[in-house]
Design a protein that fits this description.
Blueprint lengths: L1 H38 L7 H12 L21 H8 L6 E6 L6 H15 L6 E6 L10 H7 L2 H4 L36 H6 L3 E5 H13 L9 H10 L6 E3 L2 H10 L3 E3 L1
Parallel strand pairs: 1-2, 1-5, 2-3, 3-4
Helix pairs in contact: 8-9
Length: 265
């Protein structure tokens, strides 16, 4: 009986220890989550938008392609789970931007829309989506691809490097400083990372990727002599962190409009 009692006490101690560890781990995770939300640039009370950001961060992104086809016909060929999260977003209003020109005012326009919707009209959970294609898609490749394939040749001399993925305002900025004329909510920081921190979703068009691969091959900027399908795969594998790969911009825009996104260009 003493043996059984001792064994029971041991099991109880182990259970308590495990429970304490789980509570501690949960507290740590909660603290990390709270810190992430507090450091983000979404406004206070944007619970739905913050939840969407977390769900998108957890949604898988396949970036290990060897080749890709011209037309994507299977859901595992694009970021289906992430796109589904966006399509399921219920708060309104929400806006889908048809962005095609890397040198145009697209980031500034989305920033202005966010500012007006959130601070003027008090729509804290306003969601803006960039349906990115054309030369604007070049902004969604990482520096490895920009350097390897000299993407200035496609983007234009204004873009010796991909300046749009450079965050300019202090990372420590928060939503309380939205009137700062030189801060993250101003025209001084029209950057993709800052807009992502504000909840903007940047969608990357497969058709544009395919066309960029074709253009690079035509210009003989293909150091590894890859096939069209393999070069398009490499470009896809080097999309900016957080980007959502879609089958095509023109084809995805109707899907967004059907669930209530307002079209903007």
């Amino acid at each position: 009986m003493n043996v059984f009692a001792e064994r029971r006490r041991l099991l109880q101690t182990m259970a308590l220890t495990a429970a304490s560890s789980a509570i501690g781990l949960a507290s740590a995770r909660a603290e990390l989550t709270t810190t992430a939300v507090e450091s983000a640039l979404t406004p206070p009370g944007a619970a739905y938008l913050d939840t969407l950001k977390k769900r998108l961060a957890l949604a898988p992104r396949r970036r290990d392609f060897k080749t890709v086809p011209m037309i994507l016909d299977r859901q595992d060929e694009w970021d289906h789970e992430a796109l589904t999260e966006v399509l399921a977003y219920r708060p309104v209003p929400k806006q889908a931007w048809d962005n095609t020109n890397i040198g145009g005012p697209w980031l500034n326009l989305m920033r202005n829309a966010l500012n007006s919707q959130i601070w003027s009209f008090k729509h804290r959970d306003f969601l803006a989506v960039s349906v990115t294609h054309g030369t604007a898609q070049l902004a969604l490749y990482d520096s490895v691809i920009w350097d390897k394939y000299h993407l200035t040749s496609l983007a234009g001399d204004e873009f010796k490097t991909n300046t749009l993925v450079t965050q300019r305002a202090p990372v420590a900025a928060d939503a309380a400083s939205y009137e700062d004329a030189a801060g993250a909510f101003s025209g001084e920081d029209n950057s993709i990372p800052t807009l992502m921190r504000r909840g903007v979703v940047f969608m990357s068009c497969h058709n544009a990727i395919w066309e960029h691969a074709a253009a690079l091959i035509k210009l003989d900027i293909n150091p590894d002599k890859l096939s069209h399908a393999a070069l398009a795969a490499e470009l896809t594998n080097h999309l900016a962190d957080g980007a959502v790969l879609i089958p095509g911009a023109a084809g995805t825009l109707p899907e967004l409009q059907q669930v209530g996104f307002h079209y903007a260009t």
